[in-house]
What we know:
Elements: H1 4-17, H2 21-34, H3 43-57, H4 79-89, H5 91-108, E1 113-119, H6 125-136, E2 143-150, H7 153-170, E3 174-180, H8 188-195, E4 201-206, H9 221-232, E5 237-243, H10 252-272, H11 277-296, H12 310-319, E6 322-324, H13 326-330, E7 340-344, E8 347-352, E9 355-365
Parallel strand pairs: 1-2, 1-4, 2-3, 4-5
Antiparallel strand pairs: 5-9, 6-9, 7-8, 8-9
Amino acid sequence: MHTAKDELLFRGMERALAGRPDEARAALASLTGLLDVEAEPQDLDYQLFASAIARRLDDTRPGPRNPYLHPPPDAGGRQIDLFRLLMAHMPLAATADALANATLVELLGGHDEATLVDVGMGQGRQEARLLRRLAERGALPRRLTLVGVDPSGDSLAQAEVTVADVAREVGAEVVFEAWVAPVERVSGARWARLGGLPRPLVVNAAFSLHHVAEAPGSEGAARDAVLRHLRALEPSGLVLCEPNVDHFLAPPLERFAHAWNHFTHVFQLLDTLPVPREARVAIKRFYGREVDDVVGTVDESARCERHELARTWGDRLRRAGFAPLEALARVSVPVHPALTTRREPGMVGLCWRDELLVAVLGARPAVEARP
């Protein structure tokens, strides 16, 4: 059931898209008058979306605005640091990470040598947890080659330090390579180099492939090309974590409705958890920057958060020559009591109140049928 706040918020977006900025601002002003962020945690949700609409009305910022590379002007902290806070308090991210790492252990464990290619590695904290998990299982490869692909050189420098520290801690030999580039800009020579690294070769991409930059009007050609490059590596497995929501191809008003449904479910989940208020606000600010990108950006080529539904990612994987990964079906990890899981071939969905919010997908090269 729509509330008065919902009606004003949606009216603001509708008027903004209709080229009626004065009416849009009037609706947002009326909404703001109803909000009490200090007393009502849910009112911050409205404020974040209203701010994104207001920025859309005044958006003159050129060029890409990836918050991981270009820190927002607010004082809310770096996006990568807020993501670490989210990992500590939000069971969606933590459970997706645990499922992904359990699958990676199945694929990498027990081999003399192995290679892990991480697309969007960030600061290497998932790899640190993975190394410890492999060590606990007594399954560390004798030598692990770890290739981190990320557009942030600072993050990869931190990742190298983090991985080296944990490698010493668990007695692992890790060869670290940092590739400072968005994955869609990795050169042909580098893709060829990956093909010559020790096997098994496994690919991990946690909440990163939706950042692949697309040309105006594209329906996903760049991310499809990345998936074909990954398929050409003949990996033993590919593990993806992605939000389950269409913020890519849906038209702006429909995208707004998708964002409101998705993020309010995430925010409502957060509000049920025993998270300190300061941390709760910071986590909502993290998501608020994604809302700003999805809702507040007029220049489509400048957008960063191009999320897609799990089934769309599954279709892209199949077209690139992948099939569902059996190892994902075998793994099991503790799940927070607020969440439920939904399992399909090649996918484990994490749900709250029956809404599938995050998906972990696993794929392997499909075996071509012989004539």
